[in-house]
Amino acid sequence: MESRTFPGTVDSIDQIRHYIMEISQAAGLGKKPTYNLMLAADEIATNIILYGYQEANQEGDIDVIHSLTDTELTVIFEDTATPFDPLQRELPDEEDLTKPLEERSIGGLGIFLTVQGVDEFSYEYVENRNRNIFKMYVVSSE
Amino acid sequence: MSFSINSTVSENAEGAKVALITLTGELDSLSARLFQKEIEKVALESPKDLVLDMEQLSFMASAGLRVLIFSKQKIGPALSIYIVKPQEPIVDTLDKTGLLHSVTIVDKYPS
């Protein structure tokens, strides 16, 4: 298990994204799963930084922890912002997704892409920390 | 951050206004703010076609999708959106979120 800490500021958003790309490539993920994990991680990191910390006037870090087994790559984001479960957010349903652009509402797309893009996504709140957990199966069926 | 954007508004052969925006690099929630400003700028000209050159765009987060939705809502439902040579993962994102059928993917504009 390896961990790296990023300050919870906007400058970290693209740094975290690039770090996730390095981790994914080192784990041997293909191009598409690498992109999807990067996108998922970017959406969650953005939420933590912009809403969990910045908008709430809180300071804190994001710890990016990862581990690799024969079958899966697990990436965990830990932060100390107010408890927030992204899965509680209402996801767009089939009807929303087929609406024309001028009638579309703007919310929920980020978490939708997160859930869609990774093999498993979960959230827990443990010891005063938000934990967003992403799993990618290493032997992909691509 | 590796993102750049520029725009021009011109008239096409039929005399209709066309806004061309070229996006380069990675479009995340921060660069999406610049994208939105650019849309607000070209919206003043009430273009009929919005052409987004994405050939050199390697990443697009949901914030970029929100600006696409915003552009239609800002400029009006009659606006046609063309995306020039988007990279595969970006097409995939547009597809998953149901935005693909609201835009036209082209190899060049005008075709």
From TrEMBL, chain A:
Keywords: ATP-binding, Nucleotide-binding
Any GO MF annotation of the entry: ATP binding
Pfam families assigned to the protein according to its UniProt record, in alphabetical order: HATPase_c_2 (PF13581)
UniProt signal peptide: none
Residue stretches making up the Histidine kinase/HSP90-like ATPase domain: 6-130
Protein name as it appears in the record: ATP-binding protein
Originating species: Arundinibacter roseus
TrEMBL record, chain B:
Coiled coil: none
Ranges where the STAS domain occurs: 18-111
Molecular-function annotations in GO: anti-sigma factor antagonist activity
SUPFAM superfamilies listed in its UniProt record: SpoIIaa-like (SSF52091)
InterPro entries named among the record's database cross-references: Anti-sigma_ant (IPR003658), STAS_dom (IPR002645), STAS_dom_sf (IPR036513)
Superkingdom assignment: Bacteria
Sequence similarity: Belongs to the anti-sigma-factor antagonist family.
Name used for this protein in its record: Anti-sigma factor antagonist
